[in-house]
Design goal:
Radius of gyration: 21 Å
Oligomer: single chain
Low-confidence stretches: none
Largest sheet: 7 strands, mixed
Order of helices and strands: HHHEHEHEHEEEHEEEEEHHHEEEHEHE
Bound molecules: pyridoxal-5'-phosphate
Distance between the termini: 31 Å
Number of helices: 12
CATH architecture of the largest domain: 3-Layer(aba) Sandwich
Shape: globular
Structural class: alpha/beta
CATH topology of the largest domain: Aspartate Aminotransferase, domain 2
């Protein structure tokens, strides 16, 4: 295997044209109007929560994704929190999600006072498995007047929160059908899948609400930031209201009609985000070409390259490869990082973290294998 490891590192170094320097997993690229918009923003003095870039960023995001409305947020994590609030996830309720995800997905559920229930992922999509979902619901849930209830815990299963892992769309249309049948609200964690489509539909707009992250390591960044995507304009209006301290518009008075949040994205972040959004098509194209090169390379090795799922057009946010076992994986992580090429294992499963160890789980066979064998390799946009 050692020879293969060496070949992989050489291939990555050749691809990035960096013979010896450190190669990061994912770095932002600023090649458009970033400086111009930031300067405009500063010159206007509107650097905070009001300004034209906030409105423009929302309009352009809605246009790009096909959402009826988009509402910006400070980050992806609080966008999930707000989305769950909007579909009435309340203390003591349950939210179904996948154990193979970034911790923010599960954290946001607990911000609502709700409990995550972890259901297995698909081997091919790395996202929540509709097969596992329906199996769980048919065995463990019952319908009552006010929704779907977990027979084991007597708690209401208020929402389902699948995630599009590393940018690869999960089987969201099947998940949506199941959620509809069982009266469960669907919220999509599309934090990683800006620019990814499933059956020609952008990720995040099949569910009642979808969220996107613009953190510095995502495909486009606003420094920090998030967005909620809606098909329902009235719900979007409500999101805007709650994210801006539930302030009722008035020329001079402070009137607030609900417990709101300060989840507003500053105009200066929206300026950066808008400039990045203008380049999304090019970024996706470059990342897909990079993924193709990786795919060709790994075809000649014993290591599996994780390709985009069926019916999906992935942004290949983070390219991923899969080893036969945890031992080989660890050797590769050791070797690559020692050689200054950053690689990272897939997340530890949420139910293995101390704060979620008592949460209900179903069979997690696929998630377990993926968590122990998948590695992310450098995926920055190369110009
Ligand atoms: C990045 C990410 C988030 C959170 O986004 P932030 O903007 O960093 O708060 C949520 N879920 C997933 C799956 C992510 O990868």
């Amino acid at each position: 295997m050692h020879d293969t490891f060496q070949e992989i590192i050489q291939f990555i170094r050749k691809t990035y044209k960096k013979p010896s320097e450190f190669i990061a997993l994912h770095e932002p690229v600023f090649a458009g109007n970033e400086k111009k918009y930031l300067e405009e923003c500063i010159d206007s003095t509107f650097v905070s929560s009001v300004g034209k870039f906030v409105d423009q960023f929302e309009i352009e995001m809605a246009k790009y994704t096909g959402a009826a409305k988009a509402v910006v947020c400070v980050n992806g994590t609080n966008a999930i929190h707000l989305a769950l609030k909007l579909v009435r996830v309340e203390p003591g309720m349950e939210v179904i999600t996948q154990p193979l995800t970034f911790v923010a997905t599960a954290n946001a559920i607990t911000y609502c006072g709700a409990n995550p229930v972890f259901i297995d992922v698909d081997k091919e999509t790395l996202g929540l498995s509709p097969d596992a979902l329906i199996r769980f619901l048919e065995t463990h849930s019952e319908q009552k007047n006010d929704g779907c209830f977990n027979k084991n815990t007597s708690k209401k299963i208020a929402a389902c929160l699948p995630m599009h892992t590393f940018g690869h769309p999960c089987r969201i249309d099947e998940i949506a059908e199941i959620c509809k049948k069982f009266n469960i609200e669907l919220v999509e964690d599309a934090a990683e899948s800006m620019g990814s489509f499933f059956r020609n539909k952008h990720t995040g707009i099949t569910g009642k609400i979808g969220i996107i992250s613009f953190n510095g390591n995502k495909i486009i960044t606003s420094g920090g930031g998030g967005m909620l995507l809606f098909n329902d304009e009235e719900l979007a209006q409500k999101a805007k209201h709650l994210s801006t301290q539930a302030k009722v518009p008035h020329a001079w008075e402070f009137i607030h009609d609900d417990i709101g949040y300060n989840y507003r994205m500053p105009n200066i972040n929206a300026a950066l985000g808008l400039a990045q959004l203008e380049q999304i098509d090019r970024f996706v194209e470059i990342k897909r070409a990079l993924a193709n090169r990786y795919k060709e390379f790994f075809r000649n090795t014993k290591i599996k390259f994780i390709n985009e799922p069926k019916n999906a057009k992935s942004n290949f946010w983070l390219n991923a490869i899969q080893f036969d076992n945890i031992g080989e994986r660890d050797k590769f992580l050791e070797y690559s990082n020692k050689n200054k090429v950053m690689t990272r294992p897939a997340w530890r499963l949420m139910n293995n973290l101390p704060m979620f160890k008592n949460c209900q789980t179903d069979d997690l066979n696929n998630a377990k294998v993926l968590s122990e064998t998948v590695v992310n390799i450098p995926s920055s946009v190369v110009l």
